[in-house]
Amino acid sequence: MEKLVVFPLNNDTEILIKGLKENKLYQVVAVSSYIEDRSRLELLQKKSSIYCSTEFEECLTRADAIVFSENTMGYSYDGYQKRVQMALDSGKKIYAGLALLDKIQIDRDKVCILQESELSDEVVSPNKKEIDIPVISVMGLGENCDKFQLQVKIKKVIEKQGYRVLALCSNVLGGFLGMENLPGFLYSKFMSYPEKIIALNHWIHTKVKQQEYDVILVGCPGGVSEFEKYETNYFGELPLIISNALDVDIGFLALYRYTDLNYTVLKNISDFVLRKYNTPVKEYILSRQFYKADHEWKKIRYYTMEDMNEKPAIPENSEYQVLDIFDDTKIEKEILKILEELANNIFVI
């Protein structure tokens, strides 16, 4: 069993720890992060009994490998660079995704990259290939809104029903939990937007043919639109590529905790996502996270709701379903309803 250190602490660290509890290949033995995360590290150590510290070198002594998570919290990449060098000097194995590696200086031959980066041999035709199984999409208003946790939950429910799921994860940590990470060429600076769409379509088509999956669950990195004045979410580039590579049958959309939930807001979001991404969204998920604009530093800062017993005021709505990320019972019920609809829809099957 490979013992892992995770750096830095972010909103998906606990999901990885929980998901690996009974895993026979990997075990998280330590979590390290920046000094400003000290109180959150102390809380996580109390909850999980896993060693958590801002002292990265001490964490290194406890593990065989280091997992560098994506920088979803807007930290300085200098901190990543320093710790990557420490990991290299220690001779430990390093796991990282291509989006992060593009931001730091490191010999990629010394890193275990968590995504396939080579194009499929099938990518010779300029046309999309037909993928004739249902597609469920998980999107979010932006970073840090529990898309990863939602994907883990949906995958588990679908597999309990006996279906084979091709789970394409929006988070590179998904590779440790039995998901496929989205391919690295999506982040390439040397491929055009249309080329990425065709390449992704062919890559997924090959995966489906190899394993004869019943359903595709795809997570879309980033957010569907810019918001506030400091967060562009890259203008929804990756969700747009994914939604053009696949014909999505149903979409889940993750919201920040204190999003206005009135009918007009939900309808406007749903209409926007359908128009821009051709994705029908009727399932909304309230995440643990919320954000505030930091006008001094001109950036968005993300926060996790501390009081997990706080119940959001979810209005009754016959057209749009809004669920709390903590309500596993209702989430499972809705997923089962969706599976039944997909199974009965001859146009999908």
From TrEMBL:
Annotated InterPro entries: CHP04066_peptide_maturation, P-loop_NTPase
Matching NCBIfam families: nat_prod_clost (TIGR04066)
Protein name per Swiss-Prot or TrEMBL: TIGR04066 family peptide maturation system protein
Provenance organism: Blautia obeum
